[in-house]
Amino acid sequence: MIIHDGSEEATIQLAKPHSAIVTSGTFDGVHVGHQKILVRLTELARERGGETVVVTFWPHPRFILHPEDHSLKLLSSFEEKIALFEELGIDHLVKIPFTKAFSQLSSDEFIRKILVEKIGTRYLVIGYDHRFGKNREGSFDYLKEHAQEYGFAVEEIPRQDVDHIGVSSTKIRNALNAGDIHTANEYLGRPYTIQGKVTAGRKLGRNLGFPTANLEMSIPYKLIPADGVYAVKAQLQEKVFQGMMNIGFRPTVDGSARQVEVHLFDFDQTIYGALMHVQIIGRIRDEIKFSNIEALKDQLIQDRQTALQLLSHT
Fold first, then answer.
1. Domains of the chain, with CATH numbers?
2. pTM of the entire structure?
3. 21 DSSP β-pair partners
């Protein structure tokens, strides 16, 4: 996949400038609804002998338009989106720097300056109810009405449903905030992943027989799921380990700050400073304050068995 600078000054060069099969959007999480759009893109490219082009925006528009609002957390970093687009076989990724000036482009200006002049779009695929341009004034009806004028065909993918519920990045965020990892993973089409650098902690877990890696989140705007205990798979360099993760304040040991801790099964190495990627497979339970340390230890033994059962199905 070729990544292009989509700034106003840049000119995007494609190997086949008259065969660009294009879609655009923020694609946070690249969930199953997004994936159906991207699969359709690749189908059309094969049928027409063209190349697939994804136009996306960074930073996320809400970070620029509402900088005072720190409530939005994202499902994927830009680097994670790149990897997902590559897995889906996209040929070209156009990264548009989202600025306040860019947000003022009308739908007509966006189409002419970006889709037509820069990319040479010949076929545009958009998702259900997708909007674009200043105040989100552009729509499928607008595109269809003006398609001949712009020189490309347009197709809208019908609403994507999972159990009759429309999939959206917002619904995935809500599921994660509620600790509903099953729904989030189903909508994503893969396990939700977080990553962080292993840092030194109080070593309380080691005294219980459950040493943990304390993670310092490497992507501050990435959503961390609800407090609780989860079954996970953790990648360190090229190796993947099974384990369980606690998110929360550790009330039994008087924790004062929210932390993410991962216990890896059958693992005993010093890994301070290492980057750990954690796939969250299933939720085990809420975080609980136990009456004493022994009760906590007994529960951790049960948690390990529950985690192994959840992981056995993956």
1. 2-162 (3.40.50.620), 191-311 (2.40.30.30)
2. 0.91
3. 52, 123
The predicted structure's pLDDT at residue 158: 79
* pLDDT band, residue 166 (cuts 50/70/90): confident
Tokens matching residue 3: 């990544």
- What order do you get walking across the sheet with 20-24 strand by strand? 2-5, 92-97, 51-58, 20-24, 121-126, 153-156
More confidently predicted of 16 and 273 = 273
Grouping H, G, I as helix, E, B as strand and the rest as coil, residue 15 is: coil
Output the CA–CA distances (angstroms, integers) from residue 96 to 4, 61, 111, 245, in the order listed: 9, 11, 13, 36
pLDDT-derived band at 157 (thresholds 50, 70, 90) equals confident
Report the alpha-carbon angle 194-196-199, nearest 5: 145
DSSP string across 158-207 = PPPEETTEE--HHHHHHHHHTT-HHHHHHHHTS-EEEEEEEE----HHHH
Instruction: Kindly indicate the confidence band of residue 312, based on its pLDDT and cuts at 50, 70 and 90.
Output: very high
- Could you tell me which of 151, 148, 175, 150 has the C-alpha nearest to residue 162? 175
How is the chain split among helix, strand and coil, in percent rounded to 5?
A: 35, 30, 40
What is the full DSSP assignment across 34-98? HHHHHHHHHHHHHHHT-EEEEEEEES-HHHHH-TT-----BS--HHHHHHHHHHTT-SEEEEEEP
Looking at residue 246, its pLDDT comes to 97
CA dist 113 → 51, 55, 110, 120, 236 (Å): 19, 13, 5, 10, 43
Which of 19-23, 58-62, 248-252 bottoms out in mean pLDDT, i.e. has the lowest?
248-252
Judged on CB neighbours under 10 Å (0-12, 13-18, 19+), 155 is middle
Residue 164 pLDDT class (50, 70, 90 cuts): low
Q: Which residues pair with 240 in a beta bridge?
A: 235
pLDDT of residue 107: 87
